[in-house]
Amino acid sequence: MRRWALRSLAVLALGACSALAAWWWFREYAPDRDRYPVRGIDVSHHQGAIDWPRVARDDVAFVYMKATEGGDHRDRAFARNWREARAAGLAVGAYHFFTFCRSGEEQARNVLAVVPVEADALPPAVDLEFGGNCGKTPDAATMRAELDAFLAPVERAYGRRAVLYVTPEFLAAYADALPPRALWRRSILREPDDSAPWRLWQYHNRGRVDGIVGPVDLNVLATDADLAALGRAP
């Protein structure tokens, strides 16, 4: 009986150690810094008040921040994040969550009313995903038409080609319908496959950065080239 109890305790201890190791690996996962030395984050009001000088000192070079969603939603932390992140010396860019339930033209007007036109900012990014979107799932031609209607005025106003953030599910559904733009691919804890070239990789959705209380999305650039290159054709 005593031997059985000791074995049970050993099994439990081994299980606890394995779970702790798995948790630590998940929390600390990061791509090879020699291959991908330029790290950034993306944030919204969900991160709360951010201490941007501390973020800038924690190996963070750039930040994309949520500005708008759909035709009328505006992130309440955007103006503060934009102002304070720039003051901390970070390269900043805005992203828009694209919804299938409002026209591309309406959504473009929402972005233009919120995001400043600043020549040294990163190109605007468009968040394309099914998660959190409305119930519609348009066919490829309809999606492309509305996305084009969004991109035309936005890119004209900011003078840069937009970056397209895509989840694996969105890419699988619409890869052939996407316009030729730099891709920001979501691939948590693993390098994106070779199905589509990418310029940005979101590798973690619960990372930790000094200056932010709680989890934050982490990203790297495909190369250590000038961040301004994001706005060029892929």
Give an overview in words:
The chain is an alpha/beta fold. It is 34% helix and 21% strand. It has helices at residues 2-28, 52-57, 78-87, 104-114, 140-158, 168-174, and strands spanning 39-43, 62-69, 73-74, 91-97, 125-128, 163-166, 182-186, 200-207, 216-221. It has an 8-stranded mixed beta barrel with strand order 1-2-4-5-6-7-8-9. The N and C termini lie far apart (67 Å). The model is unreliable at 19-26 (pLDDT under 50).
Give the gist of this structure.
The protein is α/β, with parallel strands linked by helices and about 230 residues long.
What's the topology here?
Elements lengths: L1 H27 L10 E5 L8 H6 L4 E8 L3 E2 L3 H10 L3 E7 L6 H11 L10 E4 L11 H19 L4 E4 L1 H7 L7 E5 L13 E8 L8 E6 L13
Parallel strand pairs: 1-2, 2-4, 4-5, 5-6, 6-7, 7-8
Antiparallel strand pairs: 1-9, 2-3, 8-9
- What's the name of the CATH homologous superfamily of the largest domain? Glycosidases
CATH topology of the largest domain: TIM Barrel
Q: Strand order, main sheet: write it out.
A: 1-2-4-5-6-7-8-9
N-to-C series of helices and strands: HEHEEHEHEHEHEEE
Number of domains: 2
Q: Using the CA coordinates, give the radius of gyration.
A: 20 Å
CATH architect. name of the largest domain: Alpha-Beta Barrel
DSSP strand count: 9
What is the overall silhouette? Answer: globular
Average pLDDT, rounded to a whole number, is 90
Descriptive keywords:
234 residues, alpha/beta, TIM Barrel
